[in-house]
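Document type: protein sequence-to-structure record

Subject area: structural biology

Format: plain text, a pair of labelled lines:
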Amino acid sequence: MARVIESTTVLAAATVAYLLIGEMAVRLVIHAPLFEIHDFRHERAARTINQAVQYDSVLGWHLKPYLKFSFPGFNTLEYGFRSNGGPDVAVRPGGVLAVGSSFTAGSEVNDEQTWPAQLGQITGWNVNNAGEGNYVADQIIMNGEQLLPTIRPQVLVVDLIPDNIVGASYSSYGWPKPYFTVENGTLVQHNEPVPRQRDPGRDRFGIKPFLGHFAIADQFMTAFFSNSWFSSDGTSYEMIHNDVIDVTCRLLDRLKQQTDAANIRLVLFLQFGGARVMSSPQEAEQSVGVAKCAQQLHIVTVDEFATLRGIYEKSPTDLREYYHIEPNGQFGHKSPFGNLQVARALEPAIRSLGLSSIRNRNK
């Protein structure tokens, strides 16, 4: 018994020593003070959020304009639009305007690899990418409404995944946001103006705040599990009671009236994450419901579920090519190849609208 205790003590002491050596080594590499107490996780979360987005009283938040991230390949332009890459890229009125969430903005790919950028590449059209990370259906549609008089597009593409539609049942989806209920048959907006979010990094208790004081843990978690690592810093998810399909359909109806009045063509693209495609042969009820009302509203709709499900059923390995695979093996956002397929699916649908050209109206 004494030998077991001795061995365990030696092992524990060696583990602590190795961790301390690793901690010192990491601090030397990142030029952090060796012996000062730092909450690395909190400092990184606050810095990342403050650099990336700014408060918006109508939508909750949006990407800052002219943003250059600490990693290459993610840049924003005027209005916080995602750059399509290239030295002369700029926001230009007219053409195609894309609104959506991180699947539109292009998380995990470089500027030129998003689907709006690749749609522009394969067609020569003027395409503006107004995707916003973590936006849900109500914010996405409202974003399109706000941008119509500014961009004056010929085509507006609304890109939705099932989780976006579910997100319409939240008054705070990470941060506070607008939300809608239907009262006496009328769409009613709440959180107007949207309350400001809490300062990131307020959680001071628990395992993540504790580990956040160690540079070695912060570097590892940021590299491989960043979403989980930062998820509780100043974020909150508060659900309300509404019918998300009904709310989304009413918002699409309102948007369709505005696009028709401005002679703008409206296209709905129903996109899907890899987990959704693999989980069931049946399409998510949220997307089915929204597709049905879009058809009734005469909105041109492109739905990729059947195509992706067919690929999965034929060869699960082939589906992986469409997505960024996280270090833990889970499916992330679309890969450059997956985004190219989105662009290729939208191109004939937009051409079918019969527009003679889809370019900058000022040209």
User: Anything to note?
Assistant: The chain has a mean pLDDT of 86. The chain is about 45% helix and 15% strand. The chain has two domains: 1-34, 56-198+236-351.
